[in-house]
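Let's do one together. I've listed all components of the complex below, 735 residues spread over two lines.
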Amino acid sequence: MSTQQEDAEPSYLNYKGRYKGIFSWILSTDHKRIALLYLYSILTFFAIGATLGLLMKFELIAPGKTIMDAQTYNAFFTLHGIIMIFAVVIPGLPAVFGNFLLPIMIGAKDVAFPKINLLSWYLYVTGVSLVLISQFAGQGPPDTGWTFYAPYSFRTSSTMLPAVFGAFVLGFSSILTGLNFLVTIHRMRAPGMTWLKMPLFPWTLYATGWVQLLATPIIGITLLMIVAERTLHIGFFDPTLGGDPLLYQHLFWTYSHPAVYIMILPAMGAISEIITAFSHKTIFGYKFMVASVLAIAFVGYFVWGHHMFTSGMSGTALYTFSLLTFLVAIPSAIKVFNWISTMHQGSIDLQTPFYWAMAFIFVFMIGGFSGLILGSLAANVHLHNTHFVVAHFHFIVFGGTGFAFFGAMHYWFPKIPGKMYDTKWANIGLVIFFIGFITLYGPMFYLGFKGMPRRYYDYDEIFHAGNIISTMGSWVLYSGLAIIIINLFSSLRNGAKAPSDPWGGKTLEWTIPSPPPVENFEEIPVITKGPYDYN
Amino acid sequence: MTTETHRDDLASKTGMWLFLFTEMLLFGGLFVVYSVYRYRNSVAFHLAAHELSVFIGTVNTIILLISSSTIAMSVTAIQKKNKKLALLLLGITVILGLAFLVNKYFEWGEHIKNHIYPGSSVLALRGHGDVLFYGLYFFMTGLHALHIIIGLIFIGFVTVKIYRDKINYDNYVLLENSGLYWHLVDLIWIFLFPLFYLIT
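Okay, and this is what the predicted structure of the assembly comes out as:
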């Protein structure tokens, strides 16, 4: 291919390949370029999803109809859910930061299957396009919620088929990413990088890869069954034909609970990297961190029933699922303790990514503890399908994965475009975002506890005060988000050139220039020490 | 864009194996659904299974088993640098796969002629157990037939590559992977056959 004598190692951003212009991006098999393709598509869909959320919160500012009717509200929370879950949070960290950094952090030149990597991005775009087509085609946008619960998903007259099939295609994209990472980690680690010398972010991607691989096919087949149910009337989940809607819920959550760990495990990995780098100290209990990642991934398969405590299960099943739900909290707690212990006696450098990590731990703990409340049987009966649940999973999914995503963005930003960002505005954005987050989702715990159900565009007058606070929080959150994004984009233009290691990190990505050269490493490094060698 | 082509056969095979895991779980979801409904409608499933042709099922099982062995033999043929034999064996595999589909066509055609298909009013009159049995039968064997078709396309693609010497005795991982995929399709049938035809 191209040999440029004057510049021995062009950066991946300037590389002149076989194709020109936009094609040098959308046909590139370079893992770094694919990561950026994912980043820009995910940010676009995130903007759509967040705007839908903003409008829904505005509807809830007062009882009765404010700006939209019930059917529109149903369509909004459905699209918000599908986009945010399948198109933003699940691919978020693995497809963007995993793609960009996994090969670099294990000392490889690319992932194992670069073409399949590009294919997975095309599948991703196809999947989201199908979901978006469903909004404008046929009998009106889907209104089932992102869970597609039977029997409603095949009885509603709204356009379900493209949305359901789109989710299936998105699942396929996720499987291919996971498969690619698993093989990459097995086969392409640099010489000397034994399993226990691998940094924690790759470790979490490894566990995530297994969950993607082993859980996603279940939702794939379940969604195909819904498609068949709508088109062929087979009767899998239709009670009038002898089918059982509860079976749908079991199959759906068999994937969709592990999916939560697809979202949160890489987030934990990114936070581990940030905390170690800014404490300038080896991670506390590295082996326990690895073991807890694998334990979360494993136990996470067996807790799906806690989404169905009020759906009708045997007493034994209820106790078992509740117990297992409590068990999965143990490895998560180990991680929090180890993060705190890492900071102990470290020389902490207070920078933006570290603030994000702090904010992550704070909201993640609130999310985790509220999860335990929902995991206890008696409390669950009271709280099921209320705003308490909405608050809980937004603290975990948005507070956990979202905060980690922005933390990772600020941590690895100097490496990706090779520019520094304005820390003052980054910090202001974070503070406003954090205040908005707590104001938006905090009152939902109270509202849910008082009995306000989720997924209604209307509510009783007694819930008014909490909803006003929550809606105002959504404005603050949205402004914070805008500041953060605008700041990063303006830094792309105006930022100072980043050195190869601005934070004093020890993992391999900080040993190569920013932005990285096309081949990542001039010479494949030989690893002799652990990943966080600060002594 | 990687400037240096990097070849790792073990990685390709590992990737294929991992992909086969996902295929197993895809069908695994259906096996779960099958077992739940068989448990709930055991009498209806028992009676409905009697109506399927064990003869065609057995023939199809034998066809797939032989085709699995021919594709495995073609890998050995390539290793021994016998390109002609490898192409012949792959050709036999494709013909056997097509024969399977032809049998399937006649089998399905017979059911459909008797108004036994999902959504048919005749089937609906026979009760929930029969509706579920035939629903699962058509969906699972249909999905399996789709896998046969994908497998045949994959093998056809590999055959062309062997013909053009892109796959040879030194570089045959793609052929091995198509073989692995074909074995999986065979293996799934080995489970579908007793579940629908033999257990009565």
